[in-house]
Every structure is written in structure tokens, then in C-alpha cells.
Specification:
Strand order of the largest sheet: 1-4-5-6
Radius of gyration: 39 Å
Largest sheet: 4 strands, antiparallel
Structural class: alpha+beta
Number of strands: 6
Shape: elongated
Amino acid sequence: MQRFALRSLVAALALATGSLASAADLLQVYQEAKKYDATYAAAEAELRAGQEKSKQANALWLPTVKLTGDAKRLNSEKEFGGAPSANTDNSGNQYGYSLNATQPLYRADVSVGASQLNEQARLAEVSFAAAKQDLILRVSQTYFDVLYAQDSLEFVRAQKDAVSQQLAQAKKSFEVGVATITDTHEAQAKYDAIIASEIAAQNELAVKQNAFLQLTGVPADGLAGLPPKMEASPPEPADVNEWVKRAEQQSLSIDAQRGALAIAEAEIDKYRLHRQPTLDLYAQYGQDFNKGGLTANGGTDKTKTTAIGVQLNVPIFTGGATSSKLRESLALRDQAQHKLEAARRDTAQNTKQAFLGVQAGAAQIRALDQAQLSAQSSLDSTKLGREVGVRTTLDLLNAQQQFYSTKRDLALARYNYLLNQLKLSAAVGDLGEKDLEAVNSRLAR
């Protein structure tokens, strides 16, 4: 018997230890998502590709060297005045190679192209920073979705237990003749409705858990949740215009569109400068071999070539392609300007929405905290009234429903408040792991 008790204690401790080991908080889940999420992995690959643009920009001004070679069979006969004795046969195998080096000296369009490539490299960094912010928001959203689905199911089951007790009491009271069948029917109707709500809540939880697993690769079990009490304060500074101004200066989406506009404007310059002459320094070294040509006794002729100089190219006519591409780049510049304005408007709207979400969320949490206390008092009073006969079963059922509805609204308000805090930081381009750590510190270990 003692050995059985000892084994049970060891098993219980192991289970408790395993549960603690498998529990995860928001920051841990985010770190796992960084290694698992395919969208984030694609953003990392895009960053590596973009970083090569700066090297490509430097390469535009560096010399290019190429080696060429050829081998051919040449059939060549010459006749001089129709005299057979004067005819020559230069047929034979020819082969050779050439080493060429070119160094740009003056190319106006290359300067523009280099600035475009450097801007594309910078935009790769901006895009990756935006991908980080997006992952933080997606992880936080799915994390709180699971917690809220768990809360909803818990509230439904608690309400089901309470209604089940009322249903049993109503049936018993009816059997002994101290209550009407109406009380039983009302409790039964409420119980049946809650059963349907429980099924829906279970399905919603399964959906949210699956979405969480798909994003993070971590099972949504034992997640750290919020404590019963949570402080909520409005944004600081409290002026929404200050936040909009900060977003205009720091927003990643606006920064990305500014970069796209700069690239589009440089593209216009590139095609305008395409008509400019270019000047290159070049050097060449090569050898050609001709076997069976003029050399006597079937020997091999050898020709060595060495050259160094400058080469000037002046574009005159390109068939209209340059003019067409210039008009295309002008239209794309206009498109980039409109996209920049759209990004400004969207950012201002998102900033205001997140600001109001935090501001209203803080006030709503305080109001719902008080509403929950009032709902609890109302429920206690209704229970007492039902016992002394001044309140009906329906009154008690409604009071229970109001109490759990308030708890559910409070849970949702708290999660939305935290999410809006993160969204506000993202709107002004300042969302990072420090913000996630601040939210994570609120979770109950």
C-alpha cells in the first residue's frame, strides 16, 4: 500500500514537471515561430538576396575581364590572272584566344544604376524589419486567439454546470409540488442552448489551436495566460496627432514606398542619360594560330595582338526603345507617388485606429472590471431571492448568463488592448522584441 502511494506521488510529480516543461509563454512561442514560419523564412531569403544589390552597385564601376577562344577549319583559294602556277591555297586549321579587359571611365547611366541598387539593398532591410513586425503581430494574434477560445469554453462550461444545478433543482421542486413545470422548461431550454454553445466553443478552440500550430510549430497546450487582474493605461503621449506625426516619420510602409519612389525617379534619369556618350578604357591581348597557311612545309603561322586604348560610344538611334522606356518610367514614377500617398493615408488610419483601441481598451477594461463585480453581486442577490421565493428561476438564469457574458467581454477587451498596444508600436515603426517582452511580462507563469 505504501509502495503504491509512493508510485502515485512520483507519477504526480513527473506529470506536474512535464506540464511545466511543456508550458510556453508568448516570447518563447515567438522564438519558435522565427525558426518555423515559412513566411518569415522567405523574408530572410529576400533579405540575403537584397544585400547582394550593394555589391552589384560596386561592381558597375569595376573592370570586367573576359577570355574568348575559337577554333575553325578554313578553306581559302586564290587565283591570280588565271595562271595555275600563281594560284595559292591558304586552307588549314585556325584557332586562337583573346583576353579583353574593360574599365568604365564615364557612364552617366551607371551612376544612376548604382544608386538604384544601393536603394534596393536598403529596402531589403526595411522589408525584413516589416516582416519581423508582422511575425510579432501574427504570433500575438494567434496566441491570444487560443487564450480567448480557452476562456470562452471555460465560461460556457461553468455556466453549463450552474444551469445544470438549476435544472436539477427545478425538477426536484416540481416533483415535490413547490414549483411549476414552467421553471423546469425554462431551465431545460437554457441548458440545451448552452450545450450548443459548448459544441461551438470546442470547435472554435480546435480551429484556433490548429492555426497556432501551423504558425509556430508548437502545440497550443499549457500556454501562459493573463492573471485575474491586469492594469491598463491609455497611450503616452495622449495626443493622437503626435502618434500620427511619429508614424509619418518612422513607418516602415511609408519608408518602403519612399524608397520605391526614389528608384522610380532614378529610372527616369537612367533613360534620359541613356543618350549620353560613354567612355571606356580597354586592353586586349591575344594570339591566333593558322596551320597549313602560307608557312612553308606545313608549319603554323602565329599572330600575337596587344592593344590598349579608350573607346567612345555615342548612341544615335535605338529604334524608339529608349523613348518608350522613358515614357514607361514616367508612368511608373506617377504610380509610385500615388502608392506613397496611399501608404501615408493607410498608416495614419491604422495609427489612429490602434491609438483609439488602446485608449478605449483601457477605459473598457476598467468599466468591465466594475461590471463584473456588479454582475457577481446581482447573481448573489438573485440566488438569495430565488431561495426565499421573491425571484424566479428565469431571473437566476438570466443573472448567470449576464455574469458569464461580462467575464467573456472582459477577457476579450484585455486581449484586444494588448494587441492594439503592439499594433500602435508597429504603426510608428517601433515594434520589436522589447514590446513583446513587455506584454509577456504580464502573463501569469
